Amino acid sequence: xxxxxxxxxxxxxxxxxxxxxxxxxxxxxxxxxxxxxxxxxxxxxxxxxxxxxxxxxxxxxxxxxxxxxxxxxxxxxxxxxxxxxxxxxxxxxxxxxxxxxxxxxxxxxxxxxxxxxxxxxxxxxxxxxxxxxxxxxxxxxxxxxxxxxxxxxxxxxxxxxxxxxxxxxxxxxxxxxxxxxxxxxxxxxxxxxxxxxxxxxxxxxxxxxxxxxxxxxxxxxxxxxxxxxxxxxxxxxxxxxxxxxxxxxxxxxxxxxxxxxxxxxxxxxxxxxxxxxxxxxxxxxxxxxxxxxxx
Length: 295
Description:
This protein has 295 residues and is of the alpha/beta class. It has a single domain, classed as Alpha-Beta Barrel (TIM Barrel), CATH 3.20.20. Helices cover 46% and strands 12% of the residues. It has a 7-stranded parallel β-sheet with strand order 1-7-6-5-4-3-2. β2 (76-81), α3 and β3 (101-106) form a beta-alpha-beta unit. α8 (213-224) packs antiparallel against α9 (228-245). The longest helix has 18 residues, at 228-245. The chain is globular. It starts with 5 loop residues before the first strand and ends in a 6-residue tail after the last helix.
């Protein structure tokens, strides 16, 4: 199985007022992130506004990311639906485009039992020949992945990773203790990455890494070298970005941050809204506070 580890930025989906994906902007962002040393790219994560895009837009985002990456780093493409059949079709399409892995996300309208949640993720993993990262975000998902479900899914030969976006680091340790080597844990911007690395995480998939890629890679390298004092010093500085972004819509914050850095990524997809002028100033201030975050 491909070894996914390190910093995987959750890419934004640059979009113009007519609804077209700005592939040139996305391509430049992907290339710059790779040159900054990130270990992989994740199109159509939460920051990619997957819940607001149609299939054509999703495909354009994934295809552009794969074409620009050119195998330099793995591309783990987000797949999300309320329907198992649709999610399976998306996963197959991503593999056909050349994705190196799938980030499987469950959307739900009606509540689902553990068995139904498990069957959704299992169907996606059964449908492809590439590694699957299962994703859980209790804040937004109607039906969460329980520890029992995670343990059963971890036995699947293609489910080797979980990206957990709960704010509960103890839950991550429980997953590690329960599943052992069967599954590797990625944290999210809801967690403190250095703390997750300390307990055995393999990296993080998060939107803020789009705007602080070099600092994120430096933090990962410090953690891997077990230079915990230096890592925590850097983590404290970078955490100011997470604190600021938690106050607003995350996609709007990342898009505003990228616009400040010169990427014309456009506004979030309606009914989301762009940051107000005052909110944007707050984001710009924290980016300037984090040394080197603004070019």
